[in-house]
TrEMBL record:
Entry protein name: GMC oxidoreductase
Entry's Gene Ontology BP terms: secondary metabolite biosynthetic process
Entry binding sites for FAD: V95, V246
Endpoints of the signal sequence: 1-17
Record bears the keyword Flavoprotein: yes
Organism: Lentithecium fluviatile CBS 122367
Domain of life: Eukaryota
Length: 606
């Protein structure tokens, strides 16, 4: 820690000697690291300001090597009134590379329909699947499975990826024997598409999912901080300032708009502050959890929120901090009582000798059972597949629900108008067979993980009136729309039937573990299990939407060029611009946003 801080302080003296950059980039997420790599053309200077440290440790592996506290923000939501006033952690990476350095390594994309829905808000200006697909490909490469891994029946299509993309997806070298059984349970259904490759726009049905890991680096994590930074580090026009926080963007009024001209910067572990000027453009990429807070403190946001914090309103933009969406989930458990395979998923937990051997193997080779922690298969299902007899009733409820019915009483008219459009698109998506709403990742374990991919509830992020520079007021507003609870009940009902009634599982004699056998017999029982037994979780670390790319009169914050409304020289390149939550983990989508942002920004700064 001391060494890292010393390096940052040494760099700070250089910063003070060169106080003006062509562009200043406020960086805490995955998207803009991608943007930086393409953005630097050798002619314009770039400064990246990062709250976290620079760590080129690529060995972060979920459940084994948990990232240190210095690589994460310590944020907590406000009590969620619809879930017994529980609070939930807010996942947010604080390191060069952002969430890509600390996440679960899912290397998946949404369906074409997910991104085509975005284009309905952006004027179809290259933000549909056709426009984004080249950026998905450019940002990533795929390492095919080894010959040994191909015995599991892994399918893929290398043409959906670049041959030289900076971030690499691959397949772990280990699978549990029961993974074949899990796959057979999906194949037998007949009404669920089995996709050869999902990354070409077909992310619905069941498919194999790469993991963000690089065989060329001993199957260690592949993430933005490594894959991009090591390529731009030698460039003389590129500067990275770590362990500093941007607290405010400063503006001057010019031609009727607010022109962004500089940022205020503060040491993370000290009190020193200074100002950095930008000649051309300031790009915010502080993630959906931080970008809106920075905008609000800078005077851009809902006037009422800013006034409460004694912040002078420069631009009354109601959408800043609104439209928060995330992937809530719950995990039920099932016991394979007659699974005679060895080792099995439970062996690490029950056999200390085997656990020690497996851990030592992982430390030496990055192989073996510990790599099976990362999910490599998933079912991504449309509502028509899992809602059963309730499908028509749910469609009717979505149609009849008034847009403002479950939004806060003081919601501005712009937000209501925008949500009304979202509801129209969500209804069409709900009825579609090519757009996923339920994600069930599986690795051969008896885990009934169900993730709601398309929530109806909308949360918010606001600066704290009592401490505007402190932690924000983060409110998921979980289950504020009752449709989300109904969807979770339908998902768990479906997955229980999947485990207990699929022919493929018959020889494993599956028994419920959580909830216990007979404990849940109807919807009311599932509701009690979800809410009163604390089985529901608010977030998968996929927060989006808080500075949405939508029309301004519909609660939008940026236009289709990523420029903040009412400003010049200020743009956003992170997941806060996403208007509607896609049916996927957000890592590769962040990379695609960054690559497209690079082209947009370069084009207007030639």
């Amino acid at each position: 820690m001391a060494q890292t801080l010393t390096l940052a302080l040494g760099f700070l003296s250089a910063v003070q000697a060169l106080p003006t950059w062509s562009n200043a980039v406020v960086k805490r997420g995955a998207a803009d690291v991608s943007q930086e790599y393409d953005y630097i053309d050798g002619k314009k200077t770039v400064l990246v300001i990062e709250y976290g440290p620079l760590s080129q440790d690529d060995s972060f592996m979920p459940l084994y090597n948990v990232p240190a506290a210095q690589f994460l923000y310590n944020l907590t939501s406000v009590p969620q009134v619809n879930v017994n006033n529980r609070t939930f952690p807010v996942a947010n990476g604080a390191v060069v590379g952002g969430g890509s350095a600390v996440n679960g390594q899912f290397f998946d994309r949404g369906s074409a329909e997910d991104y085509n829905n975005w284009a309905k808000f952006s004027g179809n200006s290259g933000w549909d699947w056709k426009g984004l697909y080249p950026y998905f490909k450019k940002s990533s490469a795929l390492a095919p499975p080894t010959t040994a891994m191909q015995k599991w029946g892994i399918t893929w299509d290398s043409s959906a990826y670049s041959s030289a993309g900076p971030v690499v997806g691959a397949y772990p070298d280990y699978q549990w024997a029961t993974q074949k059984t899990s796959w057979n349970a999906w194949v037998e259904k007949g009404n669920v598409p089995i996709q050869k490759e999902h990354a070409d726009g077909h992310a619905y049905g069941v498919f194999w999912i790469p993991t963000a890991m690089d065989p060329a680096r001993a199957y260690n994590r592949s993430f933005a901080g490594l894959s991009h930074y090591i390529k731009v580090q030698p460039r003389k026009n590129y500067h990275l300032l770590t362990l500093h926080r941007v607290t405010k963007v400063n503006f001057v009024k010019k031609n009727g708009k607010q022109q962004a001209v500089s940022v205020d910067v503060k040491e993370r572990y000290g009190e020193s502050t200074f100002k950095v000027k930008a000649k051309r453009e300031i790009i915010l990429s502080a993630a959906a959890t931080r970008t809106p807070v920075l905008l609000q403190y800078s005077g851009i946001g809902p006037k009422k929120v800013l006034a409460a914090a004694n912040v002078t309103t420069l631009i009354d933009l109601p959408g800043v901090g609104a439209n928060l969406q995330d992937h809530s989930f719950a995990l039920s458990l099932y016991n394979f009582t007659t699974d005679n395979s060895f080792p099995k998923p439970t062996t690490i937990a029950t056999n200390a000798t085997y656990k020690a051997e497996a851990l030592e193997l992982f430390k030496k080779t990055n192989g073996g059972p510990y790599t099976a922690v990362v999910t490599v298969s998933g079912a991504f299902l449309p509502p028509s597949t899992f809602t059963g007899d309730e499908f028509d009733a749910l469609v009717k409820e979505i149609k009849n629900q008034k847009p403002k019915a479950y939004l806060p009483a003081d919601t501005p008219k712009e937000i209501i108008k925008g949500y009304a459009r979202q509801k129209e698109i969500l209804l069409a998506s709900f009825k579609s067979k090519t757009n996923a709403w339920l994600e069930h990742p599986f690795t051969g374990k008896g885990w009934g993980m169900c993730i709601l991919l398309k929530p109806f509830s909308r949360g918010s992020i606001k600066i704290n009136p009592a401490d505007p520079l402190g932690d924000p007021i983060f409110d998921y507003r979980l289950f504020s729309n009752p449709l989300d609870l109904k969807m979770h009940i339908r998902m768990q009902t479906y997955i229980r039937k999947h485990f207990l009634e699929s022919k493929a599982f018959k020889n494993l004699t599956v028994v419920e573990q959580d909830p216990a056998p007979g404990a849940v017999t109807d919807d009311a029982g599932w509701e009690d299990w979800l809410l009163n037994q604390n089985k529901l979780f608010a977030s998968n670390g996929h927060s989006v939407g808080t500075a949405a790319m939508m029309p301004r009169d519909e609660g939008g914050v940026v236009d289709n060029q990523l420029r903040v409304y009412g400003t010049t020289g200020l743009s956003i390149a992170d997941c806060s611009i996403i208007p509607l939550m896609p049916g996927t983990h957000t890592q590769t989508t962040a990379y695609a946003i960054g690559e497209k942002a690079a082209d947009l920004i370069k084009a207007r700064n030639r």
